[in-house]
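Posted in: Structural Biology > Protein-Ligand Complexes

Title: Requesting predicted complex, zinc ion in pocket

I'd be grateful if someone could produce the 3D structure tokens for the following input. Sequence and ligand are given below.
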Amino acid sequence: MKVHLKQIPPEGLHLEGEEDCLIPELESEGVHCVSPMQYKIDLGVSEGSLWANGSLNQPVELTCVGCLEKFVHDIKVPAFALHTELQGPETVDLRPFMREDILLNLPAHPRCDREGGRVCKATSTTLKRASETEAKREHDWEALDKLKLPK
Ligand SMILES: [Zn+2]
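-- Reply #1 --
Done. Output follows.
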């Protein structure tokens, strides 16, 4: 999205809307935008610079590193902020700034259970295995204790 500086009144401007996926090239890495990015930002111009702050949300489909299943995750940028010097052109493209913040909030090792909404299959099997091993170990100690008991 581009903003025309002339459209920004002295008291600032509030913008809400949707923008096409800013990270289409991540498709090849398994990050798939499932809907447009939603933004809510306040903009203003002061002393030769443009500032903006607000929040962004980009729903994407990711692949879980645990169970390899696809799941939908909202890449949220709760505190999007920018401050940039105005250097002549009357329009400023906010997309590169938004894109950067979305990339920063993209989980490096996405797990389907990170939001707590579901249980990752990989986690549940690991936990089960761990508790089985634990039970077996206790059993072994019991056997050992019996052996040591002098009778
Ligand atoms: Zn998973």
